[in-house]
């Protein structure tokens, strides 16, 4: 068995009304009943965070927000602060997802501010990195991943980094049905772990869980998750169906 406890996180993105979300988490919870040795996380939209956290209280499933603002309160119309996320019962937050970087102007600098704010409030960041197709094809992905890891974690202490979950999500594999091969993913994960070791020490790098994301489904999960440096999955599309998500969780156990 792997030393690091695997994580399976479902990113619902901008899907699911409150009622639909409640039905989905009930389906997952009762479909699985009991899981051992895997951390299960659900990231609903902000509008159902409170309700879903309530439904899942005292279960093995934890709740994540999909984003946050780094300020604690004030005149930031439309933004949600880390303390509000804590207040409604979530304990994780996805930060720097490629859709936020691509469509909402997030940069390594804002990602860094968000990671710091999350940690200060006791939220565990799920910190996303990943290269685009052209960056992979032009063989720049090593530099890109290195810049994202460095920029996102700059100024953090090793103890802080130990509490972070990293998600490697190649942009070309998100929502496309094209999954990175296990070999491609393993290589990127190992590279990320080495970067963490260089910056924060081998002990920390060995502790941090690195998830793979990008078209993970019930069929390909088992092989991906069996790879040495792949410690779990960040699942988009397949997390919207209870049966598929359950299969992926089972693949991690
Ligand atoms: P996908 O999304 O599983 O639908 O490819 C993954 C993600 O964006 O986190």
Based on the model shown, name its key terms:
binds 2-phosphoglycolic acid; 253 residues; eight-stranded parallel β-barrel; 12 helices; TIM Barrel; 15% strand; alpha/beta
The molecules bound to the chains, other than polymers, are: 2-phosphoglycolic acid
The main pleated sheet reads as: 8 strands, parallel, barrel
Q: In percent, how helical is the residue content?
A: 40-55%
Mean pLDDT: 96
Q: Which CATH class is shown?
A: Alpha Beta
Number of domains: 1
Rg (C-alpha, Å): 17 Å
Number of helices: 12
> Which regions contain 5 or more consecutive residues with pLDDT less than 50?
none
Label the structural class.
alpha/beta
User: Can you say what the CATH homologous superfamily is?
Assistant: Aldolase class I
Corresponding CATH architecture = Alpha-Beta Barrel
The largest sheet has its strands arranged as 1-2-3-4-5-6-7-8
Succession of helices and strands: EHEHEHEHHEHHHEHHEHEH
Instruction: Tell me the β content.
Output: 15-25%
């Amino acid at each position: 068995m792997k030393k690091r406890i695997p994580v399976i996180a479902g990113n619902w993105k901008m899907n699911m009304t409150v009622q639909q979300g409640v039905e989905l988490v009930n389906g997952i919870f009762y479909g699985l009943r009991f899981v051992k040795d895997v951390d299960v996380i659900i990231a609903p939209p902000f509008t159902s965070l409170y309700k879903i956290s309530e439904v899942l209280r005292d279960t093995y499933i934890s709740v994540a927000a999909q984003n946050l603002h780094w300020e604690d309160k004030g005149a930031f119309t439309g933004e949600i602060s880390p303390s509000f996320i804590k207040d409604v019962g979530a304990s994780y937050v996805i930060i720097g997802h490629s859709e936020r970087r691509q469509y909402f102007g997030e940069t390594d600098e804002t990602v860094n501010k968000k990671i710091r704010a999350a940690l200060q409030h006791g939220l565990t960041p799920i910190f996303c990195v990943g290269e685009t197709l052209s960056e992979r094809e032009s063989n720049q992905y090593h530099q890109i991943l290195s810049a994202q890891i460095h920029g996102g974690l700059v100024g953090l202490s090793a103890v802080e980094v130990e509490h972070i979950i990293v998600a490697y999500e190649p942009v070309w594999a998100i929502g496309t049905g094209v999954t990175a091969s296990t070999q491609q993913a393993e290589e990127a994960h190992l590279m990320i772990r080495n970067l963490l070791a260089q910056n924060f020490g081998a002990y920390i790098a060995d502790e941090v869980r690195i998830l793979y994301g990008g078209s993970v489904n019930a069929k390909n999960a088992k092989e991906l998750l069996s790879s040495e440096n792949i410690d779990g999955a960040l699942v988009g599309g397949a997390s919207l169906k209870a049966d598929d998500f359950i299969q992926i969780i089972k693949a991690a156990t």
